[in-house]
Amino acid sequence: MKTVSDFDFIKNIKKTEYVNTSITLIFKDKNTGILLQGERLAAQFQCPWGYLLITDFNYYDGVDYWYYFLNNALEIKDVVSQPEDPVGYMEAIRMTEPHTLQFAFYTPRPDGTWRLELHPKPFWDMSPSVIRLRPLRFAFKKRTIVLSKC
């Protein structure tokens, strides 16, 4: 996995019925028409089978994060939201293995380290703790992203 800057965004003013704040994804200066939750792209990475995009929304009490996996055809294949509410600002993102990121959050209380792993072959995981982290349309699909606390 490597850091890229292929994506940009347009902040959407109009709120949709599903999302309070959203952005429209731009890929290499072309509007993709893809809506993502959040108000900005916090980070973007590329692996051989697609892209990991991290978006966030900063509000008074904390920051919400969403982790999107898009395949090389720019189709959203998996989405995970940050399980703890609220969290602070993401800091110290580093690659620990070829397809694994490790990061922490700057918060008033020590929060520990998080691990995000991208799997090349999607797999089934129907455990309630995994399902609740995903939007309904992704709740019963195969997983590519695994987010866990270290």
Describe it for me?
The protein is mainly β. The protein has one domain. It is built from 2 helices and 12 strands; from the N terminus they run E-E-E-E-E-E-E-E-E-E-E-H-H-E. The protein has a 5-stranded antiparallel beta sheet with strand order 1-5-6-7-8, with no helix packed on it. A hairpin with a 2-residue loop joins strand 3 and strand 4 (30-37). The mean pLDDT is 86.
Share of helix among residues?
under 10%
Looking at how many chains there are and whether they match, the oligomeric state comes to: single chain
β content, as a range? over 45%
- SS-derived structural category: mainly beta
Shape: globular
Could you tell me how far the N terminus lies from the C terminus, measured between alpha carbons in angstroms?
Answer: 20 Å
| Strand order across the largest sheet | 1-5-6-7-8
Instruction: Output the number of helix runs.
Output: 2
Radius of gyration: 15 Å
Query: How many β-strand runs?
Result: 12
Number of domains: 1
What is the averaged pLDDT score? 86
